[in-house]
Write a structure and sequence with these properties.
- The protein has 398 residues and is of the alpha+beta class.
- The protein has one domain (15-396): Creatine Kinase, Chain A, domain 2 (2-Layer Sandwich).
- It has 18 helices and eleven strands.
- The strands form three sheets. Strands 1, 3, 4, 5, 7, 10 and 11 form a seven-stranded antiparallel β-sheet that branches. A two-stranded antiparallel ribbon has the order 2-6.
């Protein structure tokens, strides 16, 4: 096998080099236990919900407030969505406490200026508008505009999520188990946390219109990678995906036609740095980055954002809960039904109740803070037990 050296300018001489990078970097193993989260929010003026909030205004408000006290990083998505990314912490409680403090810091600074964080995962009133100008986003927009609909622009500018970051696992076998479990519980979690039923002023008919966007956007780069070995599956997925962009010194990052596999076969093949960039243009439900980045969760209303982080970490890290979740969710792989119908989709209501019960028991066993356990229990009682999701709150207030 040809392995990429630490020099990221080294050329990838064959597809085996890609596999080596994936195994060494994307599926880096070690003792699990670290938890991180990324909170994305759509933002709006409290008194002018139809208006776009300029990114320079957001930057100036948050710069004036100072950096988040617990070390989270603030970034902006192309449409002006605000993202707050935590460091990795040992356990769900530590992540929740730190990220909550940083989130309050951000929210209070914006609220004082009349800017609010929207409690939904897709823009409920405004059409897609891109604010960020950068060669990456120019090339990305051109790629999506060549597809038959405008879902690419909606994805880039009008959606928000809660991303949960969890360790790969202690070794390759454990990584495979954790990879399979995160996908097995995916439709159940999509349904339980669905929170985007209204887009551009219209009821979409989907509990998670955000997931509808992802599932119908470009299956070549948004579907679940398939195959018995996750590292090989991810390698093939990356090799067969069409190139979306190519970093250059000039402002034009539009790529030549073809896939990464085609590029490797050319005379001017990609470097390890090019591969790393290409991997950031792939958007499967779970993306391996040296940790598992769970991408299938809708952004949640303020009081509920810690719940998916706590539930997923408990299901993945607690052996008893993991076994329960795997047995309960195996075969419940209708991602479209989960996004459209929520917990009304066949089998998902009972699966969600069982998974939440298992997660709550695991959180207690691991000694997580009672307030965090209570938050998960409250979500269970308000939504999961009666077969609802946060999307139903939005629909009931219309």
């Amino acid at each position: 096998m040809t392995i990429i050296g630490r020099d990221t300018s080294e050329r990838l001489v064959d597809c085996a080099a890609v596999q080596g990078f994936v195994e060494r970097v994307c599926f880096k193993t070690g003792p699990p236990g670290l938890v991180g989260a990324e909170l994305e929010w759509l933002v709006a003026f409290a008194d002018r919900p139809q208006a776009t909030v300029p990114i320079p205004l957001l930057r100036s408000l948050l710069d004036a407030a100072g950096p988040p006290p617990r070390g989270s990083t603030i970034t902006y998505e192309p449409g002006g969505q605000l993202e707050l990314s935590s460091p990795a912490f040992l356990g769900a409680t530590a992540c929740w406490r730190a990220l909550h403090e940083d989130a309050v810091h951000v929210r209070d600074a914006l609220t004082a200026a009349g800017v609010v964080l929207l409690p939904t995962a897709i823009d409920p009133v405004r059409p897609p508008v891109r604010q960020l100008v950068h060669p990456r986003y120019d090339a990305m927009e051109a790629y999506f505009d060549a597809l038959p609909d405008d879902l690419g622009r909606v994805m880039m500018t009008s959606t928000a999520s809660v991303q949960v970051n969890l360790d790969i696992g202690v070794d390759a076998d454990d990584a495979g188990r954790r990879w399979r479990l995160l996908h097995a519980v995916g439709p159940t979690m999509v349904a339980a946390f669905a929170n985007s039923p209204v887009q551009h002023g219209e009821v979409t008919g989907w509990q998670s219109a955000r997931q509808r966007v992802w599932q119908q956007l470009d299956r070549q780069r948004t579907a679940v990678p398939t195959g018995p070995d996750p590292a090989t599956a991810w390698t093939d997925y990356a090799l067969d995906a069409r190139l979306m962009l190519r970093r250059r010194d000039a402002a034009d990052w539009h790529p030549e036609p073809g896939t990464l596999r085609d590029w490797i076969r050319s005379e001017d093949g990609p470097t390890a740095e090019d591969l790393a960039l290409h991997l950031t243009t792939l958007f499967p439900p779970v993306r391996p980055r040296g940790w598992f980045e769970v991408r299938y969760l809708d952004a949640q209303p303020w009081e509920w954002w810690p719940v998916p982080m706590a539930v997923l970490s408990a299901l993945l890290d607690d052996p008893v809960a993991a076994d329960v979740a795997a047995r309960t969710c195996t075969g419940l792989d209708d991602w479209t039904g989960a996004a459209r119908d929520g917990l009304a989709a066949p089998g998902l209501h009972e699966a969600a109740r069982t998974c939440f019960d298992a997660a709550l028991s695991a959180l207690v066993r691991s000694g997580e803070h009672p307030d965090l356990v209570g938050r998960v229990a409250a979500f269970h009682d308000r939504y999961v037990r009666p077969g609802r999701s946060p999307a139903d709150d939005s629909l009931e207030t219309r």
